[in-house]
């Protein structure tokens, strides 16, 4: 059972100046089926082999910046799960240049490639178009350590294809379970840099991330209660009798106690399956964007009554078209179709319980800027848990508040709230946003992203 939790974002490279490496030409996308005319930026996609012996190949999609790509940073984006696709969720549902709509692609006016060269990676093997050859390729359990190692090799070899990006400012971003993927990758990059300086890593940004699962998960009870989704008595049981981290821990070990089963039954009944847990204010049926988070939130007692009100998933339909796969230089190996979240990946879900907060501390000590942002309507990884953890981290490493808690603006509306510690660690909420903030609040997310890349304060006035 996988838990799609997190997205990670990686910038893409410029191709105004083609390198002498002719093989990067082969990855160039001439045109995606149904894309709007007059697209001025270049796109690339294809495979990087990360393990020659086991024939493991990771699929990437790269959209260079709309303007002046040679001066813009490179951003890597990772989706979470574990097991969900950065192509389908990140690129085609959240912050990429296009959104599928029937036969056509619609331009995303708030795409992150307005500010950066965006690189989307489908990881680990078995996710999306990423594959391994061999009969046992998808039967072994994958874990955080292996995923981080493969992602590191991917980046090193990606730079071989796109050497003009090698010294560019690099940012890692992602969401949900990317709270594991991104810090672990960044840690390996810093260790690698000690041998010889390969990565010009400047910062990481994580949206609604899993950082310390007990705090993150147990903040759900208060979020449900404060938003009127559960009763007082159920709130008491959900905090005192069986909290959510205990339930998930039991569930992942196939040992759910009757006491937890009863509490979760009450919670499920009261919150109702007709409320979207990734945005408690939204009506149900938001396409593929939401399936990435199902992994982290088991609700087995509802398994047989899950109604997919969005059977016709635009992203899945688009990416399963033969002409689209050909344009992307993509192939299906060991799976019959492209899925938003992998059906073949066997991920070690107990990795969920290992906190990544200490890694963030070591990254800050190494001078890496960190932004944790929260869509404030998400009950899966609620802002209250993330905010608590950021404060805890600041305290542990002795960072004082440099920007007191305040509102920030997007146009003439409040975009959210923010607090900054030591000018290196920031927390921000995105007002009205779901678990996937760039999907639900694209304009506000773009303002946040731009200020993060530029190292400038979020707008204080409209």
Automatic annotation (TrEMBL):
<dbReference type="Pfam" id="PF00450">
    <property type="entry name" value="Peptidase_S10"/>
</dbReference>
<dbReference type="InterPro" id="IPR001563">
    <property type="entry name" value="Peptidase_S10"/>
</dbReference>
<keyword id="KW-1015">Disulfide bond</keyword>
<keyword id="KW-0378">Hydrolase</keyword>
<keyword id="KW-0732">Signal</keyword>
<comment type="similarity">
    <text>Belongs to the peptidase S10 family.</text>
</comment>
<keyword id="KW-0964">Secreted</keyword>
<keyword id="KW-0645">Protease</keyword>
<dbReference type="GO" id="GO:0004185">
    <property type="term" value="F:serine-type carboxypeptidase activity"/>
</dbReference>
<protein>
    <recommendedName>
        <fullName>Carboxypeptidase</fullName>
        <ecNumber>3.4.16.-</ecNumber>
    </recommendedName>
</protein>
<dbReference type="InterPro" id="IPR029058">
    <property type="entry name" value="AB_hydrolase_fold"/>
</dbReference>
<keyword id="KW-0325">Glycoprotein</keyword>
<dbReference type="GO" id="GO:0005773">
    <property type="term" value="C:vacuole"/>
</dbReference>
<dbReference type="InterPro" id="IPR018202">
    <property type="entry name" value="Ser_caboxypep_ser_AS"/>
</dbReference>
<dbReference type="GO" id="GO:0006508">
    <property type="term" value="P:proteolysis"/>
</dbReference>
<comment type="function">
    <text>Probable carboxypeptidase.</text>
</comment>
<keyword id="KW-0121">Carboxypeptidase</keyword>
<dbReference type="GO" id="GO:0005576">
    <property type="term" value="C:extracellular region"/>
</dbReference>
<feature type="signal peptide">
    <location>
        <begin position="1"/>
        <end position="19"/>
    </location>
</feature>
């Amino acid at each position: 059972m996988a838990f799609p939790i997190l997205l990670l974002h990686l910038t893409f490279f410029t191709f105004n100046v083609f390198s002498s490496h002719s093989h990067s030409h082969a990855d160039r996308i001439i045109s995606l089926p149904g894309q709007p005319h007059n697209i001025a930026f270049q796109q690339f996609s294809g495979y990087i082999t990360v393990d020659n012996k086991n024939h493991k190949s990771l699929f990437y999609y790269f959209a260079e910046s709309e303007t002046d790509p040679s001066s813009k940073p490179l951003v890597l984006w990772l989706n979470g799960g574990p097991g969900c696709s950065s192509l389908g969720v990140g690129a085609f549902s959240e912050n990429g240049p296009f959104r599928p709509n029937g036969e056509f692609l619609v331009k995303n006016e708030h795409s992150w490639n307005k500010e950066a060269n965006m690189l989307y990676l489908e990881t680990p093997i078995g996710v999306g178009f990423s594959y391994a050859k061999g009969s046992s390729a998808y039967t072994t359990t994958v874990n955080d350590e292996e995923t981080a190692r493969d992602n590191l090799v991917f980046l090193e070899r990606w730079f071989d294809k796109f050497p003009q990006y090698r010294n560019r400012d690099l940012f890692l971003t992602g969401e949900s379970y990317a709270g594991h993927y991104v810090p672990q990758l960044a840690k390996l990059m810093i260790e690698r840099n000690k041998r010889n300086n390969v990565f010009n890593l400047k910062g990481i940004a994580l949206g609604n991330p899993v950082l310390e699962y007990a705090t993150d998960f147990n903040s759900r009870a208060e979020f449900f209660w404060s938003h009127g989704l559960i009763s007082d008595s159920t709130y008491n049981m959900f905090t005192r009798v069986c909290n959510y981290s205990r339930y998930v821990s039991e569930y992942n070990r196939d040992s759910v106690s009757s006491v937890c089963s009863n509490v979760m039954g009450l919670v499920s009944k009261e919150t109702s399956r007709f409320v979207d847990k990734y945005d408690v204010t939204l009506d149900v049926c938001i396409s593929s964007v939401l399936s990435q988070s199902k992994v982290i939130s088991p609700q087995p007692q509802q398994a047989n009554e899950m109604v997919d009100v969005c059977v016709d998933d635009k992203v899945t339909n688009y990416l399963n078209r033969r002409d689209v796969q050909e344009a992307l230089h993509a192939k299906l190996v060991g799976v019959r179709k492209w899925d938003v979240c992998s059906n073949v990946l066997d991920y070690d879900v107990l990795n969920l319980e290992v906190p990544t907060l200490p890694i963030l501390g070591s990254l800050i000590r190494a001078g890496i800027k960190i932004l944790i942002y929260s869509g404030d309507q998400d009950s899966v990884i609620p802002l209250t848990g993330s905010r608590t953890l950021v404060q805890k981290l600041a305290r542990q490493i002795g960072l004082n508040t440099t920007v007191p808690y305040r509102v920030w603006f997007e146009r003439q509306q409040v975009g959210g709230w923010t607090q900054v510690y030591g000018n290196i660690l920031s927390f921000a909420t995105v007002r009205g946003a779901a678990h996937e903030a760039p999907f639900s609040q694209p304009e506000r997310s773009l303002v946040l992203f731009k200020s993060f890349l530029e190292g400038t304060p979020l707008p204080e006035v409209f």
